[in-house]
Each structure stands twice: as structure tokens, then as C-alpha cells.
Amino acid sequence: MKKLVKFLFVSMILSFLAACGSDEERMEPRAVNEGEDKCEICHMMVPDDHHATQIVLTDGRHLMFDDVGDMWVWLEEQGDEEVDGAYVRDYHTEEWILFDEATFVYHEDFRTPMAYGIYSFASEEDAISFQEEEGMGDILSYEDLSSHSWERNMELMEEHDHDHHDHDHDEDEHVEETKEE
């Protein structure tokens, strides 16, 4: 009888752990699909770089964003009731890290896709080191983000739009040159 009770107890524990494991897998961020993934806010393509962020919803869907500021806007508008996990990328390694565990460095002149000027780091030490190397920027915790102004540097946005149009034009010229050859 003791063996049966022990067996049932161990089986229940293993079943519980297996169920928890599947929840954790569902919450994991996925790779960026360049050329397919569009930002939920601005609808621009999301590049596979250190600016990409994502939210995993409780139904398993992944929402992609091209800038931490756009993800913040979505969370402010939609709330986090259906959010299983929110992720940012470490500036140096581009590894996915939990949004609420990251440390951030902000400066209005930092170039980000939507000009929010915030870079994410896996550790506070990395953020401080980056700030010291750059000689500018404010260190922000996740908690600090709620009082952050979230203003975009519109001058950088205009430069980005201009550069984006020039880049598209250059690609078109390259395609034309390739066709002529």
C-alpha cells in the first residue's frame, strides 16, 4: 500500500512538473521572422536585431515590435491581462530577456527604430558599462519606465525616414543594375 501511495504521489508531482514545463515553453520568445514580422504598433517590418521586442499572449500568439517604445505603447493601450511574457533583447548579445528583469539606458540621441532612444541590457553592470563608454544616458530599471516620458526624438525619426527612403532607392538601383548585367 505504501508503494502505491508513493507511486501516485510521484506521478502527481511529475504530471505537475510536466504541465509547468509546457507553460514555460509556451511563454518562450520565438525568433524574429524577417520579411514577415511586422510591429503591432507602427506596422513596419521587425528586423532581427537588438531593438526587437515581443509579447507572448496567454493564447500562445507572439506579438512583435521593432522598438521597446512601441511595445510599451501596446502594453499601455491593451494592458497585460492576456500577456504570458514580455521580452526585450540584450544590446550586446541580442539574447531574449524578460522585459521586467532588464536594465535600460536612455538618451534622446540613441538611435532606435522609432526614436524612443532606449537600449536594453541583461544586467545593470552591462548598462552602467555601456553608459560609461558612451559618456551619456540615464540608467533606468523596469520600474523607472512607468515614470519615463516616452517621447520620441522627432529629428531622429525624420533622419530615419529619409535614410529608409534612400536605402529603398539604392536597393531598387541595385536590382536594376543586376537586371542589366
From TrEMBL:
Protein name: Nitrous oxide reductase accessory protein NosL
Region described as Disordered: spans on this chain: 155-181
Superkingdom, natural source: Bacteria
Entry keyword Heme: no
Compositional bias ranges of the Acidic residues kind: 169-181
Classification via SUPFAM superfamilies: NosL/MerB-like
Ranges annotated as biased composition (Basic and acidic residues): 155-168
Pfam families: NosL
The keyword Transit peptide appears for this protein: no
Family annotation (PROSITE patterns): PROKAR_LIPOPROTEIN
Keywords: Signal
Signal peptide extent: 1-18
